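agent> Task received from the user: take the single chain below, predict its 3D structure, and emit structure tokens. No templates, no multimer pairing.
agent> Plan: (1) validate residues, (2) run structure prediction, (3) serialize to tokens, (4) report one or two observations.
agent> Step 1 OK, no nonstandard residues flagged.
tool_call: predict_structure(input=
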Amino acid sequence: MKKLLIVDDEADIATSIQYVLTQEGFSTVLAHDGLKAIELVESEKPDLIILDLMMPGLDGLEVCRRVRAHDRRTPILMLTARTSEIDTVVGLELGANDYIAKPVRLRELVARVKAHLRESPTAVPVPTGTNRNIQLGALHIDLDSRTVTVRNHRLDLTFKEFELLAAMAKQPNRVFTRDQLFAQVWGSDFLGESRTVDVHVRYLREKLEENPSQPKHILTVRGVGYRLVWD
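)
tool_result: status=success, residues=231
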């Protein structure tokens, strides 16, 4: 049974979400402020976090930042009544996986929760069959064991980071638009936005590039998207 942490200072909203998700078979825990949320993340180890953006004291952005400081894998869905692009971008840069606007449509929330849990690393099947490898210079990707090494140094990638890198590595030097990468990695029917690609590219650069601020391998094609090059 997957465990979900619901964080919202409005008790009626939190309990409504809890009721619906419990009916769907999830285990749930509640927090009504940011400090309690951090405490429960550490003690309960939830499989997914539903996090309100606007809370007094420690708000959702700060909670997200603190969680991501030591945990890049647990999906975080932010609830927000603010829909400006800057709020969304800041949240994604801090590591949120998705946004849901208030007032929350509970069926949509359930659908997104299930989608993110299906895409989590725990959902990866046990690999079988002959290994399939991609070798680009010092970059080695094993698609079956889902491992990436650079000059024999193994990289610790999240599920989506691996999928994004593999998608580009299968066609090196090709320019991908953000929408193309989003469709390949997250799926055309996935609820989200292509700006998520930018966030995951930044994370990949931090792990892959010697100097992430001056990347040599994952290059930005201005006004279009990204391409992977490796000599």
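agent> Step 4: summary for the user.
The helical segments are 11-23, 34-44, 60-68, 85-94, 106-118, 159-169, 178-186, 195-208.
agent> Done.
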